[in-house]
Automatic annotation (TrEMBL):
Name assigned to this protein: EF-hand domain-containing protein
UniProt key word Calcium: yes
Keywords, sorted A to Z: Calcium
Listed InterPro entries: EF-hand-dom_pair, EF_Hand_1_Ca_BS, EF_hand_dom
Domain EF-hand: 73-108
Species of the source: Flemingia macrophylla
């Protein structure tokens, strides 16, 4: 049974891996870039706008992803990365540069966030498997749980956990 859980985690990792993670990071960065740009009423972000954007990204990560708190980088670090990502050297970050800026700004943060997502895909099936007996004793649903094979029950609980996490993140941004 545990082999099935590991296999399921690997399959979800392949399906949702890097492309899925980048899609969600892109979604967050696009939202933040547009929000800051509209408030600043400019096309590109200056250093001040960029620092506000970084604070908003970290606020979103800390607010909507459970776990430890991530401190935003210092202003000095933001300036350093801004210089690296400012391809046209106009001292501003445009929309295309912003995604790369955020990825360079916090690679360890995004690694931990990605790791949490994958952990959910492994932990959820394990918890589902170990708590099936307890769920069989719940009035109303216990008989249904008893009739479901372990593999089906585990798969349903994992899908529910992923769906819950996905819907929670979609409502965040």
């Amino acid at each position: 049974m545990f082999d099935f859980i590991l296999l399921m985690g690997k399959v979800f990792y392949k399906l949702l891996g890097k492309e899925w993670s980048e899609k969600h990071i892109r979604k967050i960065t696009d939202h933040v870039f547009d929000m800051v740009k509209n408030q600043a009423e400019t096309v590109n972000l200056t250093f001040e706008d960029l620092y506000i954007a970084v604070l908003l990204v970290y606020n979103g990560i800390n607010k909507y992803i459970p776990g430890r708190h991530f401190d935003p980088p210092s202003k000095r670090r933001v300036k350093e990365v801004m210089k690296e990502c400012d391809i046209n050297k106009d001292n501003q970050i445009d929309h295309d540069e912003f995604f790369n800026f955020i990825q360079k700004m916090a690679p360890e943060t995004f690694y931990v966030v990605h790791k949490k997502i994958i952990t959910t895909l492994v932990v959820a099936p394990t918890v589902a498997t170990t708590t099936k007996k307890a769920a069989e004793g719940v009035p109303g649903i216990g008989k249904l749980v008893q009739r479901l094979p372990n593999l089906v029950y585990t798969a349903l609980m994992t899908i529910a956990a992923v769906w819950f996490q996905e819907s929670f993140q979609d409502s965040a941004f």
